[in-house]
Amino acid sequence: MIIKTAEFICSNTDFKKCPNTEISEFAFIGRSNVGKSSLINMLSKNKKLAKISAKPGKTQLINHFLINKEWYLVDLPGYGWAKVSKTKKEKWGDMTKDYLLYRPNLDCVFVLVDSRLEPQRIDLDFISWIGQNGIPFAIIFTKCDKLSKSKVQSSVALFKRTLLKDWEEMPQYFVSSSADGTGGKEILQFIEEVVNSRAKQ
């Protein structure tokens, strides 16, 4: 897939106010500071599409971007250690969970995991919740340019071993780098296959 157009459509705090459409949606979420905005901008080839900040927690709304007029890329608030009030964190959590649970045209949630870190309980718990609720998802290991190839492989292998303690098989996953574009082609190819599958239904 080649991305020709990437257009910001709207931001919302309620999934009921999101675009009234049957077009496929692909949501991106991860722990704060995992590199979500950079990945979105890499995939869209638009450095200004998603706002990047040195301060985690920049994304505070459900943001819809229309890609090639064919599918929506949805940027969700990150979870984790963003320095905001407990009340605001709970509000983000409820808003995000409602979107994930009740958005009928959500075809896949990309859960971003920092490849440099050992498996984080917050990521494992979120993936468990996604699975328990039957929400389709894939994992994207980010920032792989920060490690050697062997280190990336061992990091992913450790995450696999940890996840397979509770899962029968490893979910679909990708290894990526916003800095050098690693994984972009494969992620977009996966999205294209899902979009085409929906179109045939």
UniProtKB/TrEMBL annotation:
Keyword Lipoprotein: no
Cited InterPro entries: G_ENGB_dom, GTP-bd, GTP-bd_ribosome_bio_YsxC, P-loop_NTPase
Cofactor dependency: Mg(2+)
The organism's place on the tree of life at top rank: Bacteria
Keyword Repeat: no
The EngB-type G domain, residue ranges: 22-197
SUPFAM superfamilies linked to this entry: P-loop containing nucleoside triphosphate hydrolases
Record Pfam families: MMR_HSR1
PROSITE patterns xrefs: G_ENGB
Gene3D superfamilies given in the database record: P-loop containing nucleotide triphosphate hydrolases
Keywords of this entry: Cell cycle, Cell division, GTP-binding, Magnesium, Metal-binding, Nucleotide-binding, Septation
NCBIfam families: GTPase_YsxC
Role, per record: Necessary for normal cell division and for the maintenance of normal septation.
Entry-linked HAMAP family: GTPase_EngB
Family the UniProt entry places it in: Belongs to the TRAFAC class TrmE-Era-EngA-EngB-Septin-like GTPase superfamily. EngB GTPase family.
Protein name (database record): Probable GTP-binding protein EngB
The species this protein was found in: Splendidivirga corallicola
